[in-house]
Amino acid sequence: MNSEQKCKNGVFIAFEGIDGSGKSTQAKLLAKRLKDMGIKIYETREPTDAPVGALIRQILTGRIKTDNKVIAALFLADRLDHLLNNTDGICGKIEDGVTVISDRYYFSSYAYHSVDVDMDWVINANSICADLLRPSCTVFIDVTPDESLDRIAKGRYQSELFETKERLTLVKEKYMEAFEKLKDKENIIIVNGNQTPEKIAEAIWNKVKCYFE
To answer: Which of 64, 65, 60 is nearest to 19 (CA)?
Structure first.
């Protein structure tokens, strides 16, 4: 089946943003809103909790060292399992009419990995994922690196591999480059993340409610 066939039954919304942007909070708020409306929801994230995703998390927290090109390849492997796993793959969820909300999808790879690897290579490597399932829309929570680092410092005890101001500045630039490059293929929604969570949630809802009316 092509991506259009897969998307015709369930809605797929991917949340993106630099670390500390508040995307995870907003994904949860939207999921709750939709559940309250009686819509069947599957909440998920990348890296996943599957074996490859667990390995990635160990790398991101510094417990395992490897090259950034290896990390890019591992994310692709984890994403393919995320899509195609026989138990809870999101392609199957969409086919069953379930709305899927994912905290990160392939734009994260385009942004984070293209700091070290050619972006076109990353996009081409992930083209199999885009062919399998393209999001109904990608919601990008736009915040400054300073704001994101402040939120990270307040929210947890340990930072991850990519959580420096220099790195997050580059990643944000790469997000914008990827959005521009793929603007004719992807439905991208950019929301100002320098607001209260409630205002951000309402701004997101105003953009995505058309999928549920």
So the answer is: 60
- Cis amide bond preceding 47, omega within 30: yes
CA distance 39 to 42: 10
Question: Could you tell me where the DSSP H helices lie in 50-196?
Answer: 51-60, 68-84, 90-95, 106-113, 119-125, 127-132, 145-155, 165-181
Q: What is the pLDDT of residue 91?
A: 96
CA distances from 98 to 39, 93, 128 (A): 8, 5, 22
Residue 151: Cβ-neighbour burial (10 angstroms; 0-12, 13-18, 19+)? middle
Buried b (16+ CB within 10 A) or exposed e, 73-108: ebbbebbbbbbeeeeebbbbbbbeebbbbbbbbbbb
Residue with tokens 């997000």: 175
Q: Among candidates 9, 86, 90, 77, which has minimal Cα distance to 42?
A: 90
> Distance of CA 129 to CAs 77, 123, 125, 126, Å?
10, 10, 9, 5
Bridge partners (DSSP) listed for residue 189: 139
Give this prediction's pTM: 0.91
What pLDDT score was predicted for residue 6? 37
Instruction: Return the amino acid letter for 101.
Output: I
Q: What is the DSSP letter of 183?
A: T
